[in-house]
Amino acid sequence: MVGKMLENDGYKCSKQVPFLRQLLAVSGVVMYMIGTGANIAYPGVLLEQLRQPDSALRLTPDHESWIASILGLALISGIVVAPFSLQKLGRRLTNQLSSLPALGGWALLVTAKDPTVLLISRSLQGFGMGIQAAAAPVSIAEYSAPKHRGAFLATIAFSFATGMLAAHVFGTILYWRTAALACGSCYAISLLLVSLTPETPPYLATKGKFEECKKSFRWLRGFDDESEKELEVLLNSQKNTFVPRKKVSKLKAFLEISKKPEFYKPTVIMMFMFVLFQISGMTVVPSYTVPMMEEVTDGAIESYTSMLMVDVVRFVTAVLSCMVVNKLNRRTVLFVGIIISVLALFTTSFLLYLRDFGYIADDYKWIPVVPTLIYIFGKTLGILPIPWAIAGEVFPLAYRSLGSGISGMFLSLMFFVVVKTAPTSFRQIGVSGTFCVYGLCIAICGAFLYYLLPETKGKTLYEIECHFKGIKDTTGEAEPHEKDKMLELENIEGG
């Protein structure tokens, strides 16, 4: 076997085995997020095919905007369910169950014969996406070693880009029903992969299942000294906070939790992060790539060609981001992406205005495509991966399910608002005006995050929790007043 052999408690394990096992655990979530990327991008090809004269399904403009945006509303219902599921059922079972509505949605879409069925199918997909939006970063972070966590969390961005590219490619070369069947297969693969992995060690520790926690942790991480120390800190922190449950008011418990800096600080950060994620056009662009690029290129480049250009740039950049996020500081990657995106959006808008007023010759009317692709590069490099990486890191273990659910509400609400208003925005102020608005909003969110966001690269999840608490103790020995936090959480997330 490759690598030095380690032996502990009678087990032998190559150094590569823990990484491969973590990769297997993460891959199930990655496949789900590929399906999510396909969900977001699929209207871009579905609506184009349904606009054809020989289409068996006829849609109004209102139908079209709802088909693209209803995922955002359905996300809310999934987000509401997610904290309860993550806390009561665990990460693994939540990941498994979230695949079922998504599979049902794609199956229904394949057989759809009227707009109502299309909307129902998209709603089912959105419900599953909502659960997974909270579960994915939490699951990946808890499965990963600190040295691999950045790269693994960045695979969420890679997954989105892969799913978007796959949906557009399938939709370009296949009939929309066949393309839907291909996209939906991601969830079947996800369900299989998730079923092959154990529950996450931190979740088992929060439930007092310490022997199972040790077994899962060592299966994922091996037996080296660094991992054993991290396991000891995890067990100590939970043994000191695990107390028998007693009844208190849910409202009172929530109000007490909301006053804790380790809860409200990460929640505020993630609210800004997910507003930034959506207002950057992250879901608008794949949903309306064809009409958007038609205006940007002014017919100089065939619409499907320009769509695939955007997808290729996004995919290649997402692959690059997996390496960059693991090598560079989170803040560096995020703010580089923000600066590139803002400058590229304003440049594209300026060039479109110049072209509209006749200051750019017809031979060069394709020029706005260049800063548009730079904008895709910038947002995919920093704005796409970092919010998901941070979402998996900043919430303390005791409040991770609740915090992910609350911040996820902002993700879903902004998804609906931005995607639903995009067609009207394109009609009323054009792509140039819309890009100006997006650029300004990105800059404002970036300014707030510059002062709010700490650096998390290379830190264990417990060290990050200690940062928000304002303490330097990273040994896992809890302070006396911390012993009630599991009690508070149980009352809010389970009744």
What would you note in describing this structure?
The chain crosses the membrane at residues 23-45, 65-86, 151-170, 176-197, 268-288, 308-326, 333-354, 366-390, 397-419, 431-453. By secondary structure, the chain is mainly α. It has one domain (5-485): MFS general substrate transporter like domains (Growth Hormone, Chain: A, Up-down Bundle). The chain is built from 20 helices and two strands. Strands 1-2 form a two-stranded antiparallel ribbon. Helix 2 packs parallel to helix 4 (115-143). The longest helix is centred in the last third of the chain and has 53 residues, at 400-452. The radius of gyration is 23 Å and the shape is globular. Mean pLDDT is 83; it is low at 1-13 and 478-490.
The value of Rg in angstroms is: 23 Å
Mean pLDDT comes to 83
CATH superfamily: MFS general substrate transporter like domains
Q: What is the CATH class?
A: Mainly Alpha
Number of domains: 1
Q: Tell me the strand order in the biggest sheet.
A: 1-2
Strand proportion: under 5%
What structural class do helix, strand and pairing data support? Answer: mainly alpha
CATH topology term: Growth Hormone, Chain: A
The ordered H/E elements are EEHHHHHHHHHHHHHHHHHHHH
Q: Main β-sheet: number of strands, strand sense, barrel status?
A: 2 strands, antiparallel
Head-to-tail CA distance between termini:
49 Å
Per the principal axes of the C-alpha atoms, what is the gross shape? globular
Q: Count of DSSP helices?
A: 20
The CATH architecture name reads: Up-down Bundle
Query: Uncertain runs with pLDDT below 50, 5 residues or more?
Result: 1-13, 478-490
Please provide the count of β strands: 2
Main location: membrane
Transmembrane segments: 23-45, 65-86, 151-170, 176-197, 268-288, 308-326, 333-354, 366-390, 397-419, 431-453
InterPro entries: MFS_dom, MFS_sugar_transport-like, MFS_trans_sf, MFS_Trehalose_Transporter, Sugar/inositol_transpt
Domain Major facilitator superfamily (MFS) profile: 23-457
